[in-house]
Amino acid sequence: MQIQEDFSLRQLNTFGLDQCARFFSEVYSTEDLTEVLRWCDERAIPVWVLGGGSNVLLTSDLEGMVIKIGIKGREVVEETEDHVLVRVGAGENWHEFVMFAVAKGWGGVENLSLIPGTVGAAPIQNIGAYGVEVKDVFHSLEAIDKKTTSLVFFDSKGCAFGYRDSYFKGQGKNRYVICYVTFKLSKSPVYNLTYGNVEDMLHELGYVEPSLTAVSETISFIRRQKLPDPSRIGNAGSFFKNPVVSLAQYQSLKDNHPTLQGFPTKDGMKIAAAWLIEHCGWKGKRWGTVGVHDRQPLVLVNYGQGRGQDIVNLSQAIAKAVMEKFGVPLEVEVNFW
Ligand SMILES: Cc1cc2nc3c(=O)[nH]c(=O)nc-3n(C[C@H](O)[C@H](O)[C@H](O)COP(=O)(O)OP(=O)(O)OC[C@H]3O[C@@H](n4cnc5c(N)ncnc54)[C@H](O)[C@@H]3O)c2cc1C
Questions:
Q1: CA–CA separation, 178 vs 163, rounded Å?
Q2: Where are the domains of the chain?
């Protein structure tokens, strides 16, 4: 167990915010993790669990322990004619895992190419993109209960996945540290090209037929065009969730704003937060050292010298404007620390 003190987290969060952790430890096994958790418990030190730092907003220094999950490994634990079950360490990079699956010819995660972060964080908000969510390929996960340091298994039902949501953002928030995730991938992939311009772009890039490589490269191409690269400009992807409104509210909004698009879900109509933000005049707006991205208004950016609190203030101003103009509350997707 190696514990560092007064550790700068600047390189470990994609907003590039310069805050410190009083204590910091990277763990490479469940045993390491348990040891650090016990050390914190004995001293009543609060714990934050960090993956790739691509979905956290540091609003101050952290008077406690930040544990970075570095647990690695990819292992096939079951194989049939149709599918494989792959158990992956929580500290593995998500996109590298996607590349590994694509190279093996296993389908299911190709639409989730180029999402930053780690495998262990993927179930937390049920990452999703281009018509696919992690729940679609999820089999089970192994986590350590912070309270008891015992190992707990979760199946899909136990994770209670929803849109950018799971048990780990609700009742189970801050209680478990995910150590391994097992995915069920298909040996006979069915391609999902229905979202946006994926199919057209695939052909534009010169692919005649879809394949895992073609789909993955097409998604990566689209994402690179649309989203800012955190290594060049600090951001955490979509800052807000797309709101789901009642059919009645959607109809009334649509009557006043005919260009608004809605997508039916089981809970109502999902509308694009980016559209709402843009139509309040925030797209590309600069707010001191932070701002709203000029191509994707759902992404808040740090131009370099911004503080977490500047981003919080900006996000509140945006949410207020959207509420006043459209009567729609915006829910934050990023985790505030
Ligand atoms: C440019 C960009 C594009 C993005 N695009 C998408 C997208 O298309 N779809 C999407 O869904 N998301 C997207 N995101 C958000 C982000 O990539 C995901 O939320 C990702 O899963 C975060 O992984 P992470 O390892 O960086 O998590 P972190 O930011 O380190 O942590 C996020 C949360 O998960 C918790 N956590 C992390 N690891 C563990 C663990 N092992 N056990 C328990 N808790 C843990 C943390 O405590 C924190 O609360 C994007 C982000 C960026 C910067």
A1: 19
A2: 4-69, 74-226, 234-336
